[in-house]
Every structure is written in structure tokens, then in C-alpha cells.
Amino acid sequence: MMNDTALLLPMRTGEIRIHDAEGFEGMRKAGRLVAECMDMLVPEVKPGVTTEHLDNLVREYVLDHGAQSATIGYRGYRHATCISVNHVICHGIPSPKPLKEGDIANIDITVIIDGWHGDHSRMFGAGELKRKAERLVDVTYEAMMAGIAQIRPGRRFGDIGGAISEIAHKNRMSVVEDFCGHGLGKLFHDEPNVVHSAAYNTGPELKPGMFFTVEPMLNLGRKDANILPDGWTAVTRDRQLSAQYEHSVGVTEDGVEIFTTSPKGWHQPHKVKL
Ligand code: MF3
Ligand code: CO
Ligand code: CO
């Protein structure tokens, strides 16, 4: 038996969907909202704050802005954010444990507005970061942006992973292979898988109207991941630090549009001095 939502959603076809101008409008609105929500968090992330409190702020913000959280109820997940601290790679569950000085945390939020998904994450720092933590966070941002810079019609999905891996390896960091970017739009996770460890000149061709995320996870140590017994939390096997950034993007006629750019220019929250 399908529920009401399923009846209104497109099916996964196995093909990469091509969206029209109305889709771009929808994604701009969803992307702007999730980026504004992330900006709202910047002054809130500091030593002593619990990730549960940050999750509450996000849940309220999303509802106050006429949107829904895509993660609440998704495969049994119950929170408006994933908050992945230090050696947690992704899908960290908000908890009553406070952040401490020097922690790095990825905050990942997905909203739905008018049926369109905005999926976005940034790295935050609590207080002063150690040099190697800051270097990981900065290289991860650089890798995501270099991946996105590859995107234009005629290039291939592997070019995104090619650029990301090149930057990671040059800096002696590894790229997580167990989690990928994904097509999105009216669906949260659609075709294709965006493989951050891919090689240049491989994979499907990029075409105008394709919407997907670029969300590389880089590790200071080895790439290998484990899932904790809670069924969600992915950690590095060697317990070394991991970082991630995520943008939702669309392929345009001559390049790429990033839907989740920070309106305040706070692309890297740990660098913002308030
Ligand atoms: N936002 C994550 C992504 O980038 C997915 C989180 S699913 C959840 O695809 F259930 F863990 F929240
Ligand atoms: Co995503
Ligand atoms: Co996400």
C-alpha cells in the first residue's frame, strides 16, 4: 500500500532526470532556505553547546519558514540534522553531549519546500581548532569546490571525483568511498550516485537540468568506515578526524549553479569572526 506522499512523487527510473526552469526555481528556493538556516547556526556553535540543542534550533527554524525537514521520518531517522563530530564521518545523531574546545562538527540539513529538496552541510569549529583539524576542514572545502568547478555540459561525473581525489591525495588525506553524493529534486536520493573517489573521464555525461549533491568526506587517516550499533553513526575505523561539506547544484547550459550558497558569505563557519 502506497502512502499519499508516495503517490505524488516521481518514481526512481534508473535514468538521470533532466529538470526544467520551474525545477531550477524550486531548487533555488529550497537551497536558499537551507543555506540561511546554516547561517543562523554560525553564532550558536561554540564549546558547551549540545548537538541536541542545535538540532532543536534547526527543527524550529525549518517549520517557522514553511518548510519540512526531509530527514525526520526518513528510514526511521528522527532528527532535523545529522551532526558528525571529530572522527564521525556522517549521519551523527544529535545528542545531549556538549561540544568542547577544538571539536570540529559537520552539520547536515535537508529541507523540503514546495516539494523541492535543499541538501547542504558545512563544517563548524568549537573555539580554536588545532592546526591539523583546520587543515582537514580547509582541504575538504577546497576539494568540494574543485569538484563543483568541473561541472558543465559535456564533462562527466567522474571528473568531479577526479578533482576531489587529486586534492585529497596531494594533501595526504583519503576520500571516503562508502557514501556518495546523489541526484535530488522532488526526491531526496535519486540517480545517480556521485562518487567522490571517481577517476577523470569516467561515468555518465553531465547534461543541463541535472540536479545532484557534491558532498565529499575526507579523512586524515584511512578511508575505511564503520557503522556504530545505533545503525546510523559512521565513524572512521582508525578514529582519526573526518570532514565533509555538501552543496546542492544544477547543471546549466554553460556551467553550474550552486543552490546552497551562504547568503552571508559564511561558507566556512570556523573562519567567521563575530
Ligand atoms: N543529508 C544526508 C545526505 O547528504 C542524508 C541524511 S539521511 C539521515 O544525503 F536520515 F541520516 F538523516
Ligand atoms: Co546529500
Ligand atoms: Co546532506
From TrEMBL:
Annotated function:
Removes the N-terminal methionine from nascent proteins. The N-terminal methionine is often cleaved when the second residue in the primary sequence is small and uncharged (Met-Ala-, Cys, Gly, Pro, Ser, Thr, or Val). Requires deformylation of the N(alpha)-formylated initiator methionine before it can be hydrolyzed.
Q: Where are the transmembrane segments?
A: none
What is this protein's record name? Methionine aminopeptidase
Enzyme nomenclature, EC number: 3.4.11.18
InterPro entries membership: Creatinase/aminopeptidase-like, Pept_M24, Pept_M24_MAP, Pept_M24A_MAP1
* Keyword Transferase applies: no
One GO MF annotation is: initiator methionyl aminopeptidase activity
Q: Does the keyword Ligase apply?
A: no
Q: Which residues bind substrate?
A: 91, 189
What is the native source organism of this protein? Hyphomonas beringensis
Q: Provide the alphabetized UniProt keywords.
A: Aminopeptidase, Hydrolase, Metal-binding, Protease
Residues of the Peptidase M24 domain:
25-253
Where does this protein have coiled-coil stretches? Answer: none
* SUPFAM superfamilies per record: Creatinase/aminopeptidase (SSF55920)
Q: Which reaction does it catalyse?
A: Release of N-terminal amino acids, preferentially methionine, from peptides and arylamides
Question: What subunit structure does UniProt give?
Answer: Monomer.
Q: How is the cofactor bound?
A: Binds 2 divalent metal cations per subunit. Has a high-affinity and a low affinity metal-binding site. The true nature of the physiological cofactor is under debate. The enzyme is active with cobalt, zinc, manganese or divalent iron ions. Most likely, methionine aminopeptidases function as mononuclear Fe(2+)-metalloproteases under physiological conditions, and the catalytically relevant metal-binding site has been assigned to the histidine-containing high-affinity site.
Q: Which GO terms describe its cellular component?
A: cytosol
Of which family is this protein a member? Belongs to the peptidase M24A family. Methionine aminopeptidase type 1 subfamily.
Which GO annotations describe the biological process of this protein? proteolysis
For this protein, the record's HAMAP family field holds: MetAP_1
Which residues take part in binding a divalent metal cation 1? 108, 119, 246
